[in-house]
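Quick check before the chapter quiz. The format below is the same one you will see on the exam, so make sure you can read both the input and the output lines.
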Amino acid sequence: PLRRVQVNGKLSLMDYCDGSPDFASGGFIADSGFTGPAIINGSQQQWITRNSNLGGGWSNGVWNQVFCGDNGAPAQNFGNGGVFTTLATCPVTEEAPFLYTGPQGGYSVFVPAVQHNSVGPASGSSTEAGTSIPLSKFFVASPGMSGATITAALAQGQNLILTPGVYNLNQPIVVPHPDTVVLGLGMATLVPQRGNAAMIVVRNSGVKLSGFMIDAGPVKSPVLLSVGTPGPSDASNPDLIQDVFFRIGGAETTPVSATVSLLDNASNSIIDDIWAWRADHGNAVGWTVNTADTGVAVTGNNVTAYGLFAEHYQKNEVIWGGQGGTDIFFQNELPYDPPSQSAWRASPTQDGYPSFLVTGNVKSFQGYGMG
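Here is the expected output.
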């Protein structure tokens, strides 16, 4: 993801290093400014840009280009091969927490405030709304620490920074308190080892999860990340799940498995750039090797999602069962590897599975840029 950057000059979203445009798949921009010329989208198949200033405009689109709360976004266009979905404002957003050094050189983490019906970036102003938390209120974890050690620090009221590396966890990291910040650096990667979840956020409000990866482990996990429990929550202080990526296979050399990657039970939560991937290439890949049913399951009410990517899961890839939900941008690839139709059948009368299932109990749901 590109977040909180200012680019003065040309930006290409595809690789030109070998002298010609290359294949590219898709990505995410938020809270950023670009002075121009036009951003070269090039061969990117799909992209979401929100709350940014596109001073020079946008060059083109291939399949699915979504803009939300952007100054300078192209006009919405579905005709004559048009691929632009453009929303004037974003309904509810909260930008990513970040580590910074203060005037005296000490480290703190800034947590931006919630915004409603927003346009343009929140960053770039000395008066940006939000809260600073000193590093002294964080437990700084490193690979090799156990889930129990990290959970104990969180139980004492600490926030959490995950430094870069791979965390092999024999039990989940449990986030018990509201308003806890969990900030990953360098795409810190959590790997459950005994069929446990990597992280469990219990029922609360204001928890911020940002910037880490979860890989499935050698024993099937029913869920990799669970956020919240059913019931009411504080709409003014939502849980935030942001730049959290999931991999089922591809990286490990042995078979791995998980039933559901992300379970979001937290009403009023914000999902902001999630990539859930059952590997279609890499190590230990195959229909019976890296098994996984569903990438994202939402049960909370009034959940808002931006940049939802889910690929190659073996059943319903996204299940949305909460009332009043909104998803702005969806990218999906169905599984490539079912060995037969009988192996990929929801029922004796239904071949395959929908990639995005809104369950029958849901009375209202809004989707924009569903690709």
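If your answer matched, good. The longest helix spans residues 147-155.
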